[in-house]
Amino acid sequence: MKIDPIHLLKEHDLKHTKQRVRVLEEIALDTAAISQPNLEKKLGKEIDRVTLYRILNTYEEKGILHRIMDMHGTANYAICSSSCTEDHHHDEHVHFNCTNCFKIYCLEVEAPRIKMPEGFIAKTVNSIAYGICNKCNAI
């Protein structure tokens, strides 16, 4: 996904520090979501664990990233749609978790609508499909 990290940070009223820009650049390199442990490996000593954790939390709060839990319970992060805001994420689409390579992909498929019982308020809906991705299937 092509993004302009500095423009994205300015849109969300965030300073464009070297670390913040670097995290967005790394996340945007792949079409799959990425976990914090994998980000740590890719960034090496550029950004310490605590700073990375804070950046990811800030991005999620501001509507820049959304979090997807993989089948092992690890949080993975993907760039939000442009309609996401600090008040509400609009990334209610289906995610695909490959059971072979374990990558998670955001699919352009709307998540099913769920009618909530009286008194319940859903803040987000997450639908995950499990199977073999197109790259693994081509092997």
Structure, explained:
The protein has 139 residues and is an alpha+beta fold. It has a single domain, classed as Orthogonal Bundle (Arc Repressor Mutant, subunit A). Helices cover 32% and strands 22% of the residues. It has five helices and six strands. It has helices at 5-11, 18-28, 36-43, 49-62, 134-137; strands at residues 34-35, 65-69, 75-79, 93-98, 104-110, 127-131. A three-stranded antiparallel β-sheet has the order 1-3-2. Strands 5-4-6 form a three-stranded mixed β-sheet, with no helix packed on it. Strand 2 (65-69) and strand 3 (75-79) form a beta hairpin. The relative contact order is 0.14.
Q: Kindly provide the radius of gyration, computed on alpha-carbon positions and rounded to a whole number of angstroms.
A: 16 Å
Order of helices and strands: HHEHHEEEEEH
CATH topology category name? Arc Repressor Mutant, subunit A
Main sheet properties: 3 strands, antiparallel
- Parts with pLDDT < 50 across at least 5 consecutive residues: none
User: Any idea what the CATH architecture is?
Assistant: Orthogonal Bundle
What is the overall shape? Answer: globular
Alpha-beta content class: alpha+beta
Sheet with the most strands: spatial strand order: 1-3-2
Number of domains as seen in the coordinates: 1
Beta strand count:
6
CATH class: Mainly Alpha
